Amino acid sequence: MTDTQSEAVRDVTVLNKEGLHARPVMYFVDLASKYNSKVSVTNISRGEEKVDGKSAMEMMLLEATQGCVLRIEACGEDAREAVDALAALVGTGFNTKTVHQPE
Amino acid sequence: MEILRGISVTPGVAIGEAVILEAEDYRIPYRTVPEDQVAAELARLEAAFTQSIEELGKQRDYLNTHLGREAANVFVWHIGVLTDEQLRKSIESLVFEKHAAAAYATSTVMRNYQRRFMQMSDPLLVERVRDVQDIERRLLRSILGEGREDLAHLTKPVILIAHDLTPTQTAHLSETKVMGVALDAGAATSHTAILLRSWGRPGVLGLNDVSTRISGGDLVVVDGSNQLVIANPNEATLEEYRGREAAYIRLFDKLSELKDLPSVTRDDQRVYLCSNIEFPNEAKVGTDKGSDGIGLYRTEFLYMRPEGAPSEDEQYEAYRQVILGAEGRPVTIRTFDLGADKYTQQRSYEQERNPMLGLRSIRYSLQNLDMFKTQLRAILRASVLGDVRLMVPLIVSLMEFRQAKMALHDAMEDLEEVGISCNGKMKMGMMLETPAAAIQVKEFCREVDFISIGTNDLIQYLLAVDRGNERVSQYYTASNPALLRALRDVVRACTQAGVECSLCGEMAGQPLYTMFLLGIGLRNLSMAPANIPEVKKLIRLVSSTQAQRVARRALSFETERQVTNYLRDETRKVLPEDPI
Q1: At the top level of CATH, which class does the domain A2-91 belong to?
Q2: A30 Cβ partners below 8 Å, 6+ apart?
Q3: Using one digit for the tens of pLDDT, what is the confidence trace for B125-165?
Q4: B3 to chain A, minimum CA–CA distance in Å?
Q5: Residues of B in contact with A19 (CB under 8 A)
Q6: Whole-angstrom distance, CA of residue B110 vs CA of residue B116
Q7: Interface predicted TM-score of the whole assembly (ipTM), two decimals
Q8: Are A40 and A18 in contact (CB under 8 A)?
Q9: Which of B88, B125, B229, B340, CA to CA, is 20 to 30 A from B313?
Q10: Which of B87, B121, B128 has the CB atom closest to A55's CB atom?
Q11: For residue A64, what are the CA distances in angstroms to A42, A67, A96?
Q12: Which of helix, strand or coil describes residue B103?
C-alpha cells in the first residue's frame, strides 16, 4: 500500500466569470469524489486556509472568484490523476464537455 | 460584548438567555441529552439527512422536467452540502462529544457557516446565506417534526430573537415566558409593533441581522429605553443593567397598584380608559389592567390567518369571547378595515398604485357586501351577550354611512327571518379618520350614535404622510397644530350635538397628549392596554381646569416643535420621575 501513496500539487487560475459558485463547486466536488486520494484546496489569492476538496460547503467558502489562484493538492494512490483532472476542470473554465460529464 | 441599535417600541430593560425563533416558529434552545440518548439523537440526525436529500432529489427532478436544468441547479448544491461528509461529521461530533441535541447541533454548525458567508466581500456569495438557512430549516423541520417545541412551552424566562414575528405570534406573547423581544425586521408603526406595545415588555425592532448575530443561549440585554440590544455584556454593563431592570420592575409594580383606583381627575371628573385590541384573548388582558371596556376591537385580524376568510360562526365565536372577556363593560367592534397594507393587496388581481387611497376599509366592505353582511350578522348575533356597539371605519361621506346602516338593517332582517334574536337597538357609530369627515362632523352628528376619532389615519390623511415610509415618517406627528385644531373642532361639535365622542389612536396612549385631550373635553380614550396605568396615573394628578389651560396654550402655537416642547414641559411637571 505505502508504495502506491503519492502526493501531487498544482496551482491553477479560476477563469470562468462567475468563479466557484454553486454549479462549478459541485462539478469540482463530484469530480474530486471520484478519486480515492484526499483532495485539499487553498485559495492562495486570499489566504492560507486549506479546505476539503470533496466538501460542497467548504469549497464554497473559498470565495474563489474569477482571477483567484487555487492550489490543488492530493494525497493517495491516484493523487496525480486527481490533480490533473481537477486542474483541467478549473483551467478550462469548467468546460465540462472536454473534462467531465456529470450525471 | 456586541451592541446593536434598532427602533424601540416599548421602554424598559429585559435581561435573559436568547431563544432564536426561526421564521417557521422553530426555536432552537441549547439542550443536551443524557448519555444513553446520544445514539438516538444520532439516528434522528441520520434520518433527517436521508429525508432531506430525498426531498431535494425529487424537487430537482421535478424542476429539471418542468423548468429546465438552470432551475434545478439551485438545489444541486443543497444536495451537495447534505452529502458533504465533513459537514455531517462536525454536526455529529457535537452530539457525540458534547451530548448536544440533534436540532441544536445542526443549528449551531449551520449558523456558523451562515456567519462565514456573511463576512464575504462578494455579494453573490453573501447570498448563499439564504441557501444555508434553507438547508438548515429543511433539516430542522425533519428533526423536530410534529414534536417541535413552541413558545408556549418555554420553561424559563427568555429573550426572543427572530427575523420577524407574525401578528398571531406577537399576540400570544403574553401567554409565554418571553421577557423581551429583538427583531431583524419591523418599523415603529407596523402591526407587529402595535401588538408589541400592547404586550408592554421591552422590544427593539429593525435590527437587520440580530437573528444571525446572536446564538441561542447567549446572554442578551434588551434596552427598550435606548433602542439597544447588547449580546454577551461584560461584567460592568451587566451590573448596570441589572440595576435598571429592577428599577423598571418597581415602576411597573407601582403602576399596577393603580389598577383598582378609579380614573378620575383631581376635581372628580370621570375619564373612561378603554383598550384597543386585535385578538379575542386580549380582552381579558385589558380587563386585568383596569380598563373600562374595549374601545376598539380591530376585527380584520380574524382575516390574517392562512385559512382565509372566517365563517359567520367563527366570527361569532371570536366576538363572544371578547364580550365575555370584557365582563359587562362596553365593547366597540369595528368592522373589517381591510385593504391598503392589510390582506387584500396580496389577493387582488391588480395591485393598486396607491392603496392608502384605494379600495380599503368601508369601501372594500361595501363592494363586498356578502362578506360585510356575514360580519354584521355575526356581530348582531353577539350583540345580545353584552354592551356591544358597532363602528364603521374610514367614513368619508354621509352616503357611505347610510349604506352601511342599510346593510345592517338587511342583516337584521335576515336574522329575524330565521328567528335569531339580536339587539335591534345596538348603537352604530363611525370612526372619524378622514379630513372630510372632520369638516362635515356636524352633519354626521345627526346620523350617528357615537364618534370615535382614529388619529392614526387622520394624521396620515390630514398631513399627507405615509406613517410606514421611513423617509417621511418624521413629518408624522400628533403635535401638528392643524391636527390639534381639527380635534378641538370635532370634540366641540360632538358636545354641542350631544353625541358621544372618544379617541382611539396611538395618541390616546401617549401621556404627552393626555392633558391636551382632557382639556379639549374628551372623557373617553381608548389605547393599548399596556398604556392604561401610566395615563391613569397622570389623569389622577391633574384637574380639568389645569388641562383646559394646557389645551388652550397648546392650540396657540404655530409649529409642531413648540407644541411638543410645551406639552413635554407640562407633563414633566406632573410626572417628574417618569420617562416621557
Answers
A1: alpha beta
A2: A100, A102, B80
A3: 777 787 888 888 888 878 875 433 467 777 788 999 888 87
A4: 27
A5: 122
A6: 10
A7: 0.85
A8: no
A9: B340
A10: B87
A11: 9, 8, 18
A12: helix
Kindly report the nearest CA distance between residue A99 and chain B, in angstroms.
19
User: Residues 6 or more apart from B554 whose CB is under 8 A from it?
Assistant: B484, B516, B519, B563, B566, B567
Distance of residue A3 Cα from the nearest chain B Cα, in angstroms: 27
**In the CATH scheme, what architecture does the domain B2-16+158-253 have?**
3-Layer(bba) Sandwich (3.50)
**A18, A52, A56 member nearest B80 (Cβ):** A56
- Amino acid occupying residue B56: L
CA torsion B399→B405→B407→B409, rounded to 10°? -140
Query: Is CATH 1.10.274.10 correct for B35-147?
Result: yes
B195: helix, strand or coil: helix
Residue of B nearest to A65 (CA): B122
Task: Look at the block and give the residue holding cell 406573547.
Answer: B173
Q: Check B84 against A23: CB less than 8 A apart.
A: no
**Which residues of chain B have a CB within 8 Å of the CB of A58?**
84, 86
CB contact under 8 A, A23 and B73: yes
User: How crowded is residue B377: how many other Cβ atoms within 10 Å of its Cβ?
Assistant: 22
**3-state SS assignment for residue B460:** helix
Q: Domain residue spans in chain A?
A: 2-91
Residue A96 sits at the chain B interface (C-beta within 8 Å): no
Nearest Cα to B332, choosing from B398, B269, B382, B281? Answer: B382
How close, in Å, is residue A21 to chain B by CA atoms?
8
Chain A, 47 to 86: residues with Cβ < 8 Å from chain B are 52, 54-58, 60-61, 63, 65
SS3 per-residue string spanning B206-225: CCCCHHHHCCCCCEEEEECC
The C-alpha cell that represents B289 in the structure block = 389592567
Question: Checking DSSP bridges between strand B524-527 and strand B203-205, what pairing results, if any?
Answer: unpaired
User: Could you report the per-residue pLDDT of B70-107, keeping only the tens digit for each?
Assistant: 667 778 889 999 999 889 999 999 999 999 989 889 98
Would you give the DSSP letter of residue B339?
A: B
- Bridge partners, B275 (sequence order): B294, B527
Q: What is the DSSP string of B494-544?
A: HHHHT-EEEE-SGGGG-HHHHHHHHHTT--EEEE-GGGHHHHHHHHTT--H
Residues contacting A55, CB < 8 A, separation 6+: A29, B84, B85, B86, B87
Query: What are the catalytic residues of B?
Result: 191, 504
Domain ranges, ordered by start, for chain B: 2-16+158-253, 35-147, 274-508
- For residue B125, give the nearest of A29, A57, A63 by CB distance: A63
A21 part of the active site: yes
Q: Which residues of A touch B116 (CB under 8 A)?
A: 61
Mutation target among A43, A51, A57, A96 for the B interface, most CBs of B within 10 A: A57
Please tell me which residue in A9, A15, A19, A21 is annotated as part of the active site. Answer: A21
Distance CA B541, CA B574 (A): 7
Low-confidence ranges of chain B (pLDDT < 70): 22-27, 29, 67-68, 70-71, 145-150, 166-168, 171, 187-191, 285, 304-308, 340-351, 468-470, 577-580
